[in-house]
Every structure is written in structure tokens, then in C-alpha cells.
């Protein structure tokens, strides 16, 4: 149980740390930069104190209810030993109803406590982020200039990447258009070939001549004539 609580505390601290870093970076690179005043920090501290007080009150309520349940159990045991049967039944039923009511109330408290703890964690993260962002506005001049130079270098690198993409865009567009035109030609050729194949199949089924056989016979006769002429000349 202790190990689980310790692990949970470490995970929650890591989460708060990451959220704080993210908010800090967003605050200093934003346009305009986020400037946190003293009044906002005071307001957050007030909210945090209120939530802590509410959580403490809830835990105290749980403790008191547990003590009351233990007292009720002891009273029921004493009354069971010292009273008559009918009186004991009445007291037992009444005590059982009280315990059942208290158990119902207790079942809703863990969720409330969990919500309060989550709210406290969020407020602490926000307060830490605001404190870091506020401290960044009060850096010494050398540290401020170094931070500004670092952000300007990052911005310049992003601008170079953007310029490279913009320069390559026209060439990529032309290549895409050429490929699209070539694809259109291939699609038309495919459509024409399919149409011709269907027409040839239809003529074949209907017994019509598609002209290919006549063309083949003409080529064969021309070939024989050429061979004959070549043979005569030789």
C-alpha cells in the first residue's frame, strides 16, 4: 500500500512537472507573451486554500462517521446483552438502519475526495506554471537576451523549413500535373482498347469481318511478292 502511494505521488509530480513546462513554453513564445501578475497568483493561492480546507473537512467528516459507527456497534452489543428480546429487536433494527445510512454516505465520499485532490493538483500545476512564467518576465538582462536569442534561432529554423517547402511546392505541383495528364492519356487508351476489344468480340460472335484477316492476307501476299523480287534480283 505504501509503495503504491509513493508511486502515485511520483507519477503525479511528473505530470505536474510536464504540464508546468508545457505552459511555461507556451507562455514565453506566445504572441503576445503571457504576463502573470501578483493578483492572479494571490487568487490562485486563495482557491487552493479553499479546496484544501474543503478536503480537510471531508476527511474529518469521514473520521467522525467511522467513530460514530464504531460507537453504534458497541452500543448495540451492550444493549443486546442487557435488554429484553422485543426491545433488543427494535434497537438492533434502528441501529442497523443508522449504520446502513452511514455506509451509503461513506460510499459517496471517496469520489468527492478524489475530485478535490484532482482540483488541488490542477491548481498547483497552474500556480507553478504562472509562477515560472512570471519569473521569466523578471529575468536578468543577459538571461533574457539569451532566451530571446534561443527563441529567435528556433523561429529562424522554422522559417527556413517553411521557405524550403514553399520553394519545392511549384516543382511538385508541375510534376503532379504532368503525372495527371499522363494518367489521363493512359485512361483514354485503356478505354479505347476496351471498346475495340468489345467490338471485335461482337463482330466475331455475329460472324462479321473486322478487317484483320484481310489485312493479314494482304501482308502475306506483299511479303511473298517482295521475296520473289529479291530472289529474281539475286
TrEMBL record:
Coiled-coil ranges per UniProt: 41-72
Region (Disordered): 190-218
Entry keyword Coiled coil: yes
Bias (Basic and acidic residues) ranges: 190-207
InterPro entries: Sos7, Sos7_CC
GO cellular component labels: kinetochore
Superkingdom in the source lineage: Eukaryota
Domain Kinetochore protein Sos7 coiled-coil, residue spans: 6-80
Keywords per UniProt: Coiled coil
A biological process from GO: attachment of mitotic spindle microtubules to kinetochore
UniProt keyword annotation of Coiled coil present: yes
PANTHER family, sorted: KINETOCHORE PROTEIN SOS7 (PTHR37329:SF1)
Protein's name in the database: Unnamed protein product
Organism: Aspergillus oryzae
Phylogenetic lineage: Eukaryota, Fungi, Dikarya, Ascomycota, Pezizomycotina
Amino acid at each position: 500500500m505504501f509503495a503504491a502511494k509513493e508511486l502515485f505521488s511520483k507519477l503525479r509530480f511528473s505530470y505536474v512537472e510536464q504540464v508546468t513546462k508545457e505552459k511555461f513554453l507556451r507562455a514565453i513564445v506566445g504572441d503576445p507573451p503571457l504576463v502573470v501578475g501578483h493578483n492572479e497568483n494571490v487568487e490562485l493561492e486563495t482557491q487552493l486554500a479553499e479546496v484544501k480546507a474543503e478536503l480537510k473537512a471531508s476527511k474529518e467528516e469521514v473520521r467522525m462517521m467511522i467513530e460514530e459507527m464504531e460507537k453504534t456497534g458497541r452500543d448495540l452489543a451492550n444493549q443486546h446483552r442487557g435488554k429484553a428480546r422485543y426491545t433488543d429487536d427494535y434497537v438492533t433494527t434502528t441501529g442497523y438502519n443508522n449504520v446502513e445510512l452511514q455506509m451509503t454516505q461513506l460510499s459517496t465520499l471517496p469520489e468527492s475526495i478524489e475530485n478535490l485532490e484532482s482540483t488541488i493538483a490542477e491548481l498547483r500545476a497552474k500556480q507553478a506554471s504562472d509562477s515560472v512564467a512570471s519569473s521569466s518576465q523578471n529575468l536578468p538582462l543577459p538571461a533574457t537576451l539569451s532566451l530571446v536569442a534561443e527563441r529567435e534561432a528556433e523561429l529562424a529554423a522554422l522559417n527556413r523549413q517553411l521557405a524550403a517547402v514553399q520553394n519545392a511546392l511549384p516543382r511538385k505541383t508541375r510534376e503532379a500535373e504532368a503525372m495527371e495528364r499522363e494518367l489521363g492519356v493512359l485512361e483514354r487508351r485503356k478505354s479505347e482498347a476496351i471498346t475495340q476489344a468489345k467490338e471485335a468480340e461482337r463482330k466475331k460472335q455475329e460472324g462479321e469481318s473486322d478487317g484483320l484477316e484481310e489485312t493479314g492476307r494482304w501482308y502475306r501476299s506483299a511479303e511473298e511478292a517482295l521475296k520473289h523480287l529479291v530472289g529474281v534480283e539475286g
